[in-house]
């Protein structure tokens, strides 16, 4: 993608921490900040995609005057999952007269831990241009089957 969508998400997420975080303490031992769900809209190739993010910040340990915290971020990427084919088409599809032609046929985004997997089915052709009698003529030199 041309622009990292997480730049926008991180800015909104951390501003939510500062403004809307609610602290809870159990017996003075555990410190936890719950970050309520925030729905944000990110534009990818002029297509609005809604992402809902929430989280929890909890204190893990304190050693030598240093506090160690754990950040758990929960993001709902279901709208991105539904429109991943269109997003990839906008980024990858091309149709050069003399060169490569790539067409995304379909794509699936599967959530896995700790990342996600995108599987795309595409059609690829490579064309070359030859000058015949002063006129450029294009024709396929290699065709790749769909899949």
Beta-strand fraction estimate: over 45%
Mean pLDDT: 77
What is the approximate shape? elongated
Structural class, judged by helices and strands? alpha+beta
Strand order of the largest sheet: 1-2-3-4
What is the total number of structural domains? 2
The radius of gyration over CA amounts to 24 Å
- Distance between the amino and carboxyl termini: 23 Å
DSSP, total strands: 8
Low-confidence stretches: 16-28
Report the order of strands and helices.
Answer: HEEEEHHEEEE
Spell out the blueprint of helices and strands.
Elements: H1 5-20, E1 22-26, E2 30-44, E3 47-63, E4 66-76, H2 78-82, H3 84-92, E5 94-95, E6 100-111, E7 116-132, E8 135-143
Antiparallel strand pairs: 1-2, 2-3, 3-4, 5-6, 6-7, 7-8
Summary keywords:
single chain, 147 residues, alpha+beta, 4-stranded antiparallel sheet
What does this structure look like?
The protein is an alpha+beta fold. The strands form 2 sheets. A 4-stranded antiparallel sheet has the order 1-2-3-4. It has a 4-stranded antiparallel sheet with strand order 5-6-7-8. The chain is built from 3 helices and 8 strands. It has helices at residues 5-20, 78-82, 84-92; strands at residues 22-26, 30-44, 47-63, 66-76, 94-95, 100-111, 116-132, 135-143. The chain folds into 2 domains: 5-78, no CATH class; 84-143, no CATH class. β6 (100-111) and β7 form a beta hairpin.
């Amino acid at each position: 993608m041309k622009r990292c969508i997480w730049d926008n998400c991180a800015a909104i997420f951390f501003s939510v921490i500062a403004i809307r975080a609610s602290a809870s303490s159990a017996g003075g031992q555990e410190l936890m900040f719950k970050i309520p769900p925030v729905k944000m809209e990110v534009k990818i190739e002029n297509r609005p995609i809604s992402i809902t993010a929430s989280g929890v910040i909890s204190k893990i340990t304190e050693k030598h005057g240093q506090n160690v915290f754990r950040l758990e971020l929960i993001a709902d990427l279901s709208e991105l999952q539904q429109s991943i084919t269109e997003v990839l088409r906008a980024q990858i599809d091309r149709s050069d007269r003399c060169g490569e032609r790539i067409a995304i046929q379909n794509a699936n985004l599967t959530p896995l831990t700790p990342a996600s997997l995108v599987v795309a089915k595409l059609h690829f052709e490579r064309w070359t241009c030859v000058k015949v009698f002063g006129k450029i003529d294009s024709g396929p030199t290699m065709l790749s089957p769909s899949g």
